[in-house]
């Protein structure tokens, strides 16, 4: 039995869960890495690189006895950097002789090139997409790259976009990943988020995503005209008052602007205030 292997179990049935947090099951005498559990789909917030890599090795190897998740169809690493955790993930996947799809995301042009050179057999698996600047790429690019069969309960996502980064943008990225891809697992390295949840030397937390979102939502919403001008496919401006004002657009049907499309994701049938994409 390997040293330091930790397994985490997420109860898929909310009705059967108690008021206590999701349990951590130790498989060795070593202490488990500090982890904050948010809710199902299972989201683990870890503060340090070693914790992040141990979680990646554990979940990608499928080696532990307590695994209750379906076989991995795909693994996405957002923030591949120099490829250290990428190496851990790929080695773990290769040890299972599985055909799991791997996709690595890195926004830095120089680091992206390093990744292609370090993993020449996987060069086409790395992409330079910035999901924090443009969350729509999650659906427009990544979901297409993964394929319909690999989005959802067979997908695991590992996010490390800077351990010293403030919690708010990392939380937003995580929420967008869940809304767009519905993975069974997200492991996120963010010291600030972990500390804000009381994780440092504290208990494991089981919080709903809505509670996390509320804690970072500005108390005073931006005026609709503070939002950028966006056009629909016919070059007609999408109405910002219709999308962002709680009262809606006062002009109603007489408004010359587009009331059919979401100002945030350009989808139809909902407004920006109802959109699942968070910005």
Strand order of the largest sheet: 3-4-9-8-5-6-7
**What low-confidence regions span 5 or more consecutive residues with pLDDT below 50?**
1-33, 64-68, 200-219
- Biggest sheet features: 7 strands, mixed
Radius of gyration: 20 Å
Mean pLDDT: 74
Q: What is the straight-line distance between the termini?
A: 44 Å
Overall geometry: elongated
Oligomer: single chain
Order of helices and strands: EEEEHEHEHEHEHEHHH
SS class: alpha/beta
Explain this structure.
The protein is of the alpha/beta class. Helix content is 28%, strand content 13%. The chain has eight helices and nine strands. It has helices at residues 49-61, 84-95, 109-118, 137-146, 167-181, 191-196, 209-216, 240-244, and strands at residues 6-8, 24-26, 36-37, 42-46, 74-78, 101-105, 126-127, 155-159, 185-189. The strands form two sheets. The chain has a seven-stranded mixed beta sheet, with helices on both faces. Strands 1-2 form a two-stranded antiparallel sheet. A hairpin with a 4-residue loop joins strand 3 and strand 4. Helix 1 (49-61) runs parallel beside helix 2 and helix 5 packs antiparallel against helix 7. The longest helix is centred in the middle third of the chain and has 15 residues, at 167-181. The radius of gyration is 20 Å and the shape is elongated. Residues 1-33, 64-68 and 200-219 have low confidence and may be disordered.
């Amino acid at each position: 039995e390997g040293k330091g292997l930790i397994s985490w179990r997420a109860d898929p049935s909310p009705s059967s869960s108690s008021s206590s947090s999701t349990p951590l099951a130790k498989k060795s005498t070593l202490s488990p890495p500090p982890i904050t559990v948010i809710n199902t789909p299972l989201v683990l917030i870890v503060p340090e690189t070693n914790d992040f890599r141990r979680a990646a090795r554990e979940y990608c190897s499928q080696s532990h006895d307590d695994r209750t998740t379906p076989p991995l169809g795909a693994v996405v690493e957002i923030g591949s950097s120099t490829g250290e955790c990428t190496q851990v993930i790929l080695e773990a996947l290769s040890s299972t002789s599985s055909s799991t799809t791997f996709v690595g995301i890195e926004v830095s042009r120089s680091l992206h090139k390093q990744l292609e050179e370090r993993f020449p057999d996987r060069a086409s698996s790395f992409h330079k997409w910035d999901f924090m600047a443009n969350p729509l790429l999650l659906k427009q690019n990544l979901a297409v790259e993964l394929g319909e069969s690999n989005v959802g309960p067979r997908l695991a996502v590992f996010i490390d976009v800077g351990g010293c980064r403030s919690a708010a943008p990392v939380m937003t990225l995580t929420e967008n990943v869940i809304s767009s891809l519905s993975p069974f697992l997200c492991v996120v390295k963010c010291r600030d988020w972990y500390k804000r949840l009381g994780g440092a030397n504290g208990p494991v937390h089981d919080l709903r995503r809505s509670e996390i979102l509320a804690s970072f939502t500005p108390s005073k919403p931006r005026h609709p005209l503070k939002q950028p001008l966006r056009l629909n496919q016919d070059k007609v401006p999408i109405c910002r008052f219709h999308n962002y004002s709680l009262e809606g657009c006062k002009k109603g049907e007489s408004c010359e602007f587009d009331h059919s499309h979401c100002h945030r994701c350009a989808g139809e049938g909902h407004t920006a205030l109802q959109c699942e994409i968070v910005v």
